[in-house]
Amino acid sequence: MAECHPVAFRWVMEAKNRGATIIHVDPRFTRTSAVADLHVPIRPGSDIAFLGGIVRYILENDRWFRDYVVHYTNAATLIDERFRDTEDLEGFFSGFDARRNKYEWESWSYEGVQGVVPAAGHKEVYGEKGAGRHDLRAANVTERETDPTLQHPRCVFQLLKKHYARYTPELVEEVCGVPRALFLEVAETLCRNSGRERTGAFCYAVGWTQHTVGVQYIRTAAIVQLLLGNMGRPGGGIMALRGHASIQGSTDIPTLFDLLPGYLPMPHGVLPDRGLDQYVSNNASATGWWSEFRKYIVSLCKAWFGAAATAENDWLFDTLPRLTGNHSHMTTVAEMADGKVKGYFVMGENPTVGSMHGALHREGLRKLDWLVVRDFALTETAEFWRVAPEIDRGEVRTEDIATEVFFFPAAAHTEKDGSFTNTQRMLQWHHRAIEPPGDCRSELHFAYHLGKRLKALHAGSSEPRDRAIQALTWDYGEHGPTAEPDAERVLREVNGYTVADGEPVPGFAKLSDDGSTACGCWIYSGCYAGGVNQAARRKPQGEQHWVAPEWGWAWPMNRRILYNRASADPEGRPWSERKRYVWWDEAQHRWTGYDVPDFIVDRPPSYRPERGATGLASLGGDDPFLMQADGKGWIFAPAGILDGPFPTHYEPEESVIENPLYPQQCNPARMEWHRRENPYHRAYGDPRFPYVLTTYRLTEHHTAGGMSRWLSWLSELQPEMFCEVSPELAALKGLRNGGWATVTTARGEIECRVLVTRRMRPLRVRGRAVHTIGLPYHWSYVGRVRGDPANELIPFVADPNVSIQESKALTGDIRPGRHSFGRRSVTDGEALQEPRPTGEEAPRDLPGLHARFRHPPVEPRK
Amino acid sequence: MANLPVLGEWPVLRQIAARDASGLDGTAESARTRALRPRTASADRVARSVCPYCAVGCGQLVYVKGERIVDIEGDPDSPVSQGCLCPKGAATFQLVTGTHREQHVLHRRPGGTRWEVLPLEQAMQMVAERVKRTRDETWQERVEEEGAEHQGDLVRRTLGIAHLGGATLDNEENYLLKKLYTALGIVQVENQARI
User: Fold this and answer.
1) What is the pLDDT of residues A338-373, one digit of tens each?
2) Of A351, A654, A770, B19, which sits most exposed with the smallest number of CB within 10 A?
């Protein structure tokens, strides 16, 4: 955090100055470790075992926050009797479908409640193809069975205890390489700093997400925080430290395949031809806040299609494209390499450097008809046709690449108006300072004018498929010498307005499903309330209270801490004076506090829904997690997560050890790409690749380098690609500090300088030393400073929930010296794979290595 | 003669007069030093902005003089950053004013070995025409693939065009892109959040 989010880390130091204990868990010793109270070196890929150990510690030592857990989480809820845990099924949960490598959720349900809708994650439990409208899902959530004493063997609390019973300090030591005493100090420190008077927070970044079990890492932290009562409270929470200026915004208003703005799922092919009603019933919840779903999709259609969207034509919902499966980045690039994708837009991203397996990306680009790149300078992605290892080696000739490439120079943030959403969901407006130089233009300009031209090209068409582009509302004004559209008019549409008079709505509570309102992204509704650009508010910090609600605007409704109803006890009183944040004011009969209460503002703490209540009436006064169907924090996830209701330790796709906990080595629901250019190593113990590789960023560079490798100021500070190794590994392999090394996987090889440092430490895991090689990933073949890209080494393999690559834990080899003749990649020329070792293959799945069908055992093993 | 310094400005005399034997105090300051002003002081205007690198969202002040950016500093009013910028944020001035920035639209023909400059308007029209052509050629009204899980399903899309990028863009830009692509039936839209 000190290295990659230095200014945010100032607040960690501020907390430390006020007495907070800082714990840094990281395979490397970094600038964060240097100022932390505790540094815990951990084997990459083992965090669920570590966090699971903390869960067990909390439960076994009775350190959980009873009032919080009983009232605010689903710990008391009974789970269907068909549910089987990974403890029963050798590393599988019940419901695994070996034909599709996917779980069915039915056996994970709350007892007697099918199809409960999750607040986030995967909502899709698709109805039957061609079926008509059916009832909203899980209307009987308020009638679920609970045991507030937490004793029932099928209540979540008891299932949790059983699930983590084997995650002992001894096991943590064996799996993670963290000595027992150090682990216990971490667990005790967390517990000691939680409760009524104190709170603890987790911060993480892609070190947690880039794994085949990335989502479950975060889930384990969520369980710890719910048990300790650290959610929705000041100083608590789980903070994702995101790495791009508006990566949060591009998730909320998604340039993502599976979502429409505001986390509404993209329509799916199972819908009938006239599909709005079933789309709503598939995705809306009968209870909790997602019961409002229909208002948001109808308002979105009104924003997009204007007067053409009517009740008679279902607001033109059926003109939207539909998914039939995964169309994420890796899937798209693999299809590109197969020649299925013809045209590709790349804007402000440099995937041949920043994403896994650059060689496979370049192969995909070579198969395109046309490519459009928008950036500040000619990145590797723009130059793939003339600067690449396979071209240096003569395996691919520039003249043979038929891809037509357009490069458009981009305007900088100082040359355009617009908002970024920061990592805490806060929108901040940046104002245009000057006009962009030359032909540089904003993406707003590009999208708007491209859309205008495409509307003109399709204007005369009578094809039904052109209906949506014809009806699309596209009026954002044009001003200045470049005919720039007005970003504030876009923000106004995002905020939403009443159709009759065009006045901005004050927030999403005023949206309706009768076509009288339009709204481009319901969770952002309120950002233009009162006709004022709320994101541009800049009341100095010194002129307002510590929450600073008048600086920028945070979704939803300017709430700075989500689910902050949980900062008060079930009766609505602050848990303690010290941690006062939001509370119930009986005299005024409303919630109040320092922040905007994240709750129905006049619902008293004593309110209890009648059995069978639906809609917002189903939320009790003590249900702080109001996006969930049951208003509770989910320790057990009955839906929404594709690889298990509880996080379970699996080894990475490529590991140095056998899974010590389960016969199932890896996440059985992970996504793999079996193709010639994407060979995997053995599951563990591959003699060719005996070391752990992990990638990371440096303070002085930014991601794939597009905003740093061209700047002399930054490049001077970090001029060259290097790897970090421990003195022990250096001695073992004959590596010299400052000398060259070649790092190899089956996907490619890179050369770099060697930094021998005690910041890297061999760990004792299962009785032997595990060495980790650290690789920054910023460099590549063009730019002012050049070096080999670490991502050439990473395979295509992904977390099933979010399709994210696994680049924080894989295996590889290192040898001293530069590579022999040019760089090699696996897509062209001679194969990189050394002869496969003889002997029995280590299983990754049951049965056998790389099994396409991963069978859980038929009979539970005793 | 006119260029000779006035005797009273001779540093040694100033030091003696001010009893500043080490010469580290105000006597070391020349008239020129005293007259120096930060270039932010003479800026025509200041635009309030946000750092474009990571997601912390540090405040920036962009100083403009003569329609050129002359400096970018941290914004002391920001409750996020209190005027601080990290090494990357502090390099924003070079990011936006540096010579590395390409200012022309470039085009590489199929099989070509070099870039050629294209007028912006022509390039925009060429891209629009390619989108239309590819979309028309790859349009999928229903899944027709024999034996496919979703055979016969209405999908109304093209899998022939894809997009990548968005985490470095503004919300308003992502909104227009997603809106346009979706209306065209382009579903393979992705960004850095997938990394």
Assistant:
1) 999 999 999 999 999 999 999 999 999 999 999 999
2) B19
10 Å Cβ neighbour count for A365? 26
> Nearest-CA neighbor of A750 among A705, A799, A814, A696?
A814
Amino acid, single-letter form, for residue A820 = S
- Chain A from 265 to 294: CB within 8 A of any B CB: 266, 269-271, 273, 275
Residue B65: its H or E element: strand B59-65
Q: Tell me the angle at which helices A293-305 and A276-283 cross, rounded to the nearest 10 degrees.
A: 140
Which tens digit of pLDDT belongs to each residue from B126-184? 999 999 999 999 999 999 988 888 899 999 999 999 999 999 999 999 999 999 999 99
> Which residues numbered 140-169 in B keep a CB inside 8 Å of some CB on A?
141, 143, 148-150, 153-169
Is the preceding omega at residue A687 within 30 degrees of 0, hence cis?
no
Contacting residues of A for B58, CB less than 8 Å apart:
7
Predicted pLDDT at A129: 58
Q: Which residues are bridge partners to A753 per DSSP?
A: A722, A740
pLDDT in tens, A575-590: 999 999 999 999 999 9
Residue to test with chain B: of A215, A305, A322, most B Cβ within 10 A: A322
Q: Is B70 within 8 Å of chain A by CB?
A: no
Are B62 and B68 spatial neighbours (Cβ–Cβ below 8 Å)? no
Contact: A250, B193; criterion CB under 8 Å: yes
- Sequence-distant (6+) residues with CB within 8 A of A140 are A112, A113, A612
Q: Kindly provide the ipTM of the predicted complex, given to two decimals.
A: 0.96
Q: What are phi and psi of B69, to 5 degrees?
A: -80, 125
Helix (H) or strand (E) holding A351: helix A351-354
Q: Torsion-angle region of residue A851: left (phi > 0), alpha (psi -120 to 50) or beta?
A: beta
Q: Which residue of A has its CA nearest to B176?
A: A447
Close Cβ partners of A678 (under 8 Å, ≥ 6 residues apart) = A357, A360, A747, A795, A796, A826
Check if A131 contacts B (Cβ < 8 Å). no
Residue-wise pLDDT for A501-533, tens only, equals 999 999 999 999 999 999 999 999 999 999 999
CB of A317 closer than 8 Å to CB of A279: yes
List pLDDT tens digits, range A449-461.
Answer: 999 999 999 999 9
CA distance A599 to chain B (A): 25
3-class DSSP state of A164 = coil
**Which sign does the torsion angle of CA A70, A72, A75, A77 carry?**
positive
The residue of chain A nearest to residue B155, with distances taken between CA atoms, is A322
Half-sphere exposure of A226 (CA within 13 A, CB side): 25
Using N-to-C axis directions, what is the helix angle for A169-176 and A180-192, rounded to 10°? Answer: 120
Closest alpha carbon to A97 in A668, A649, A845:
A668
| pLDDT at residue A123 greater than cutoff 80 | no
pLDDT at A833: 56
What is the predicted pLDDT for the residue at A574? 98
Distance CA A539, CA A541 (A): 6
A247 or A124, higher pLDDT: A247
Q: Indicate left, alpha or beta for A113 from its phi (over 0: left) and psi (-120 to 50: alpha).
A: beta
**Is pLDDT of A849 > 50?**
no
Q: How confident is the model at residue B11 (pLDDT cuts 50, 70, 90)?
A: confident
Amino acid at residue number B154 = L
Phi and psi at A543, nearest 5°, equal: -105, 10
Separation between Cα atoms, residue B134 and residue A403, nearest integer Å: 14
Higher pLDDT, A439 or A137: A439
Q: Which amino acid is at A573?
A: R
